[in-house]
Amino acid sequence: MSHEAEEAVAAVGVTTKTFLNVWIALLAITGLEVFLTYEQLPVLIMLTALLGLSVIKAMLIIGYFMHLKFERFSLFLSLFPILIMCIILMLLLFLPDSMRLVHMRLAR
């Protein structure tokens, strides 16, 4: 590797090997998720496990492939309120609408 390439890698802090390791981890987590869907687990345990694995996968993708792990903390602080707003929207707007479907099914 040339000196310029080594300096670029040092500045960013990530190599092709790192990307390959993250990709293999994502592949393994996806395989585990597929395996869990075929197991006869209680619904609450299965959904909790799948949600937790999905959050881990999202963190890996956002951190490495979107390069947010190497950004300044101020970027995180600008994105965090958006995450909170999305959660609030889901709880206040989408959850009550989905509960309406439960009541519609019970009315039949």
Note the topology:
Elements (H helix, E strand, L loop, with lengths): L2 H10 L3 H23 L4 H23 L7 H35 L1
Helix pairs in contact: 2-3
Short characterization:
With 108 residues, the chain is mainly α. It contains 4 helices and no strands.
Structure description:
This protein is mainly α. The protein folds into two domains: 71 residues, no CATH class; 37 residues. It has four helices and no strands. α2 runs antiparallel to α3. The N and C termini lie far apart (69 Å). The mean pLDDT is 81.
What is the 3D shape?
A: flat
Poorly predicted runs:
none
N- to C-terminal separation?
A: 69 Å
Order of helices and strands: HHHH
- The radius of gyration is 20 Å
The major β-sheet equals:
none
How many structural domains are formed by the residues?
Answer: 2
Strand content: under 5%
Pairing-aware structural class of the strands and helices?
Answer: mainly alpha
Mean pLDDT: 81
Keywords:
84% helix; 108 residues
